[in-house]
User: Which sequence fits this backbone?
């Protein structure tokens, strides 16, 4: 599903940009939301998806603990 969502995001960005110019696509990815199987997403300045919920865990003292910012 991640690959499908990524493809949808890029194709949407190309359509919104009206070209395959790199800078125009990046701008569209950062400013335009797109509906995907993962939810409605766009990307921040670092390229991280906004709108995709997930959790990161690590093992502490033999137990999974959710990592928070």
Assistant:
């Amino acid at each position: 599903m991640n690959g499908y969502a990524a493809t949808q995001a890029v194709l949407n960005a190309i359509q919104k940009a009206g070209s395959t110019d790199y800078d125009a696509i990046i701008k569209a990815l950062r400013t335009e939301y797109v509906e995907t199987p993962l939810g409605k997403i766009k990307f921040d300045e670092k390229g991280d998806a906004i709108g995709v919920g997930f959790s990161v865990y690590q093992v502490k003292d033999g137990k999974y603990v959710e990592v928070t910012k």
Notes: The longest strand covers residues 39-43.
